[in-house]
Amino acid sequence: MSAANSDATTGRTPSGRWQLKDIVLVVVLGVVFGVLYWALVQAWGASRLLFGDLSEHVLAGGWLIVAPIAIAIIRRPFAGIAAELIAAVIEFIFLGSPVGPMLAIAALIQGAGSELPFALTRYRNYSWGIFAVSGLLGAGLVFFWSAYRGGWYGTDLFWIRFVIQAISGVILGGLLAKVTVGGIHRTGVVDNYAIGRETR
Length: 200
Description:
about 200 residues, transmembrane, Thiamine ABC transporter permease, transmembrane helix
């Protein structure tokens, strides 16, 4: 079986046991993407000022990307949720995100939504479709939390907001994550993790 095909569906269920290197990598990914997420907040704020409130949903999928990346490399339960939570902590505690501590709740919802499709395949399927559904669920679930906080329920633009955010989730939080994982994998730096062992 080729590496490309086995990367999509390994046919094996990874062990749920975490190793120290898995924990370290999740922390590193969380820190790196916490910084990137903070930078995205700056772009998000500028976008709202220039183009209005609807534009914020165009970038929403960008805050999902670390979860599927962590899951695909480590292939352990809760890797995506942990990575999102760590990124949120870095973003609002150390970098002072204007979103504040409520960001942790959003991160938990995003991480859970992004991880669910992989969990349903018992962490065996890493196809384009699964990544796309991951981005869709992550963006979709957190949208309803944001809608509650933002008072969007009952407004005329509610479903337009949802559709824009869902598309963003699929593209930025799903398909871009798949491309990123492929690029990291090809460098060989993660060969000693589950992604490397299970695609040989």
